[in-house]
Amino acid sequence: MGGDGCNVLIGGEAGQGLATIGELLAKSLVRGGYHLVVTQDYQSRIRGGHNTFTLRVSAQPIQAPQDPIDLLAALNQETVDLHRREMAPDGLMVGDSSLELPGEGSLAVPFKELAEGRFFNIAALGVIAALLGLDEAIPARLLETVFGKKHPETVSKNREALSRAYAWCREQAVDSFKLPTLAEPPQRLLMNGNEAIALGALAAGVKFYAFYPMTPSTSIGLNLAAQAEKMDLVVEQAEDEIAAINMALGASFAGAPSMTATSGGGFALMVEGVSLAAMTETPIVIGVIQRPGPATGLPTRTEQADLEFILHAGHGEFGRAVFAPGTVEECFHLTRRAFDLAERCQGPVFILSDQFLSDSYRAVEPFDLDCGPEVEPWADGGDIARPYQRYALTDTGLSPRLLPGLSEHLVIADSDEHTPDGHLTEDLQVRRLMVEKRLKKAEGLKGEVIPPSWFGPEDPELLLVCWGTTQGSAREAAAKLTAEGRKTSVLHFAQVWPLAPEQFVGRLEEAGRVVGVESNAAGQLARLIRRETGFFIKDMILRFDGLPITPEYVLRHLPG
Fold it and tell me: Is residue 197 domain-shared with residue 166, that is, in the same domain?
């Protein structure tokens, strides 16, 4: 185990409960004060197939997954066979004594002696936690919290299996994986990207969420539904994605801050609704959690290949903003910002994440829920002259937005081209004015752009350019290169549209060498930067096999 902590991979097939082991272990480690990055790799099936739950854990802050496996917990023989070549030189493989484990660097565990069948997972949790040196009291208290209310009859059995596993491990001569003990562990939250998006939406004041289940976006809706009654929120599972976005638009038109989310295939059905939001100038937040395509693609894997799709989705010309969070914290803050921006600019705003971040648990500091204003989706109609013009021509392109039924004014909206008061028109002069009005709003969005983040020395000989969830891996790779004497920095885009070239072109031109890092085959951000600025990022590190980019992947594929 290196100085960056321990990389633990739990492998088995769907139905064996490895996610339960992983989540309980992750919660225990966070309660112990450790930092972690979780990567979940699972096949699109309910039972069978090969799945993994990987936790990179450290006493120090970490930002990305890791390739070499320090501790492999194999729930079946397939895991042993598939991952033995990925072990670190001093790694340890742990599995039931019935498995064919390699003689050196392995530990055969008599799980049948430690726990009866249904408590096998808790014994496995105990073995892994004990090997990491985690105080037994931490997972023991967690088991009481998790199972005490729903299944009190199992608490004693769970505790017994956990204790036997710890006692067995104490008898073994293995201590190279013990994490440093933290005397006063800080209180942090265990949260993944989708949970943070849901929390950000709640903090912004979301009141309506419509969705059709599609991996990997579904858990956003499930998390919101779990809080719906408490937060006075309506969550609707629609019959398809077309209905979902139109329901959200209808709710927003009526005054409820609204959101929908899906993945690439589902968003393909929503595209007409994006244009409807633009034409009717209705605020909406749209989450697109990417997975590999085309078509059904790899439903449970990750990729960053939908950027160009999101940029150009919808017929006609109109503005939009696209945020691409790179951390769980950014998922929260950018979702909150998306609601505020959608309301103020009266149109569609996107959150573009991916499967890796959506399922990746991290240890995060508690969020300040009062860090920004809640959305207030209406204007005071008292001083507005009659007849009310929903689409009044203004210098900014933004018109006063009244809600139907909340004033004496008649609110009219039309999906056809319309006059300032909202009535359908085919007057071509009015058409030109309305197009210009909508494009003025697009120009206004450019004044709201979040500058890309800079990490590293100011005068790098190598600059890694990335967006969204490749941030952590690029930063860790850059830090390692800098420590080895090659000054390397990272330019990370958490907002990929609109771009404000004046914010970053100078840095690109001053860097010694610029390399793009993206999880797609075409270098979509690099192409966008070239289109908007003329700067050509010639060298690229691209990954599109469905797995997330790691620091080791960046270093292995760095152009000579």
Answer: no
* Inside any domain, residue 98: yes
How do residues 447-493 score in pLDDT, each as one tens digit?
Answer: 999 999 999 999 999 999 999 999 999 999 999 999 999 999 999 99
- Would you give the DSSP letter of residue 85? G
CA distance 17 to 347: 43
Same domain, residue pair 204 and 353: yes
What is the reported pLDDT for 4? 64
Question: What's the pLDDT band for 379 if we cut at 50, 70, 90?
Answer: low
Q: Which of 483, 418, 122, 146 is nearest to 278 (CA)?
A: 418
Give the three-class secondary structure for 519: coil
Report strand pairing: 539-542 vs 514-518. Answer: parallel
pLDDT digits (tens, 9 = 90+) for 423-447: 999 999 999 999 999 999 999 999 9
* CB-CB contact of 466 with 516 (8 Å): yes
Sign of CA dihedral 171, 172, 173, 179: negative
Q: In what order do the strands lie in the sheet with 514-518?
A: 453-455, 488-493, 462-467, 514-518, 539-542
In a domain, residue 371? The reply is no
Closest CA to 67 of 59, 56, 76: 56
Above 60 in pLDDT, residue 166? yes
Whole domain around residue 87: which residue ranges?
6-187
Question: How many CB atoms neighbour CB 43 within 10 A?
Answer: 15
Other beta carbons less than 10 A from residue 165's beta carbon: 27
Q: With the CA atoms of 273, 275, 281 and 282 taken in that order, what torsion angle do they form, in degrees rounded to the nearest 10? A: 20
Place of tokens 């004044």: 447
pTM of the model: 0.96
